[in-house]
Amino acid sequence: MPELPDVETLRRYFDATALHQEIGDVAVRSGQVLEQTARRTLEGLSGRSFEGTRRHGKYMFAGVDSGDWLVLHFGMTGDLKYFKDMQKDPEHDRLLFSFTNGYHLAYVSQRKLGEVRLIGDVDRFIEAKDLGPDAMSDGLDLGTFKDLMGSKRGMVKSALMDQHTIAGIGNVYSDEILFQTGIHPRLQLGDLDEAGLETLYREMKQVLQVAIDRQAQPEELPEDYLLPHRDPDGRCPRCGRPLEQVQVSSRTGYYCPNRQGEA
Ligand SMILES: [Zn+2]
Predict the structure, then answer these.
(1) Rounded to the nearest whole angstrom, what is the distance from the C-alpha of residue 3 to the centroid of ligand 1?
(2) Ligand 1: distance of its center to the CA of 241 in Å?
(3) Rounded Cα–Cα distance for residues 140 and 147 (Å)
(4) pLDDT (tens digit, 9 = 90+) per residue, 239-253?
(5) The whole model's pTM is what?
């Protein structure tokens, strides 16, 4: 599932390809998911252009020259593809913008369409969704992070994945952050001291920045990163021991019992 580094990479891709071009045709190919009204609003983008983008957590927003914003949430498998030749139209394109310059932008998803709709105000949308601060925003400084974590109970991994606390981190990157910090996924927030919280904060920013810099490509990550090894036969990239699995918030996490302790 696309998390902050993946969505940031998609946002930059959108910026590099799809801005400042007149939208011709809009094809919505996922009728069972999108309501008629949502479909009509999207089709109403014909004649408009995208002028800029924003991101908050796992949400991307594309600004339309009308002042509206297109919300893109990539669900479990969403992706973007910009191309010219319609023969290269990717499989499972759920939404296709055809620009008058002959190029196309497809929202691709093997599963159903994630959240896609037009809104008037991004900040109001974020507020209505009750999203926490974006994990990479300057506003999420150490003090704010400590306050947010200090106000919660439960496991550290659950807190990192809770979009209402901090927006952008899911199962995969919370595993990486905990691995880099050396914290067991089932550790309770209350058992984390001041120094532990600070290290967690630093590693969170660091891991996400590294992943963004490497365009969220697992094979491009540093050698001591857990992410490319997250599978049932995976081994710890640092000590070589088999990774363990753990259920947290009904997701399967991976960790090294040597580095992060036993459950
Ligand atoms: Zn290890």
Answers:
(1) 24
(2) 6
(3) 10
(4) 999 999 999 999 999
(5) 0.95
